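Practice problem: predict the structure.
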Amino acid sequence: MHVFGGSDKAIAEKKRHDLAEEAFDRANERYQRERAKLLDWIASQEKSKEKADQDFSVTDASLKRYGEAHPDFDASQLKKPAFSDFYTPSKEQQANKLLFVGGGGAAVGLAAGYFFS
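Answer:
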């Protein structure tokens, strides 16, 4: 829902946001699949290595061990996607959000003052 109705700019902003959200969801799903595959591999290796007593609950230690077994592995490939990598609100959208939040806060404050005084 847009603060000032369905103007062309608001509709374009919503479409841009929705496309970014879809791309973010796809990237997040891919990240979760790859992370699960990596953790499955680590778990299978844990059973077959002499260092089975090492604690693999910490993902960083697991990634380090995987890197030792696979020198060509780059842990930065598993960067968890953030929505901000796909979408940043326009200046106008940010200003409208601040206006909406500020106006809403003022309205709630006035209403609370009226009813509780």
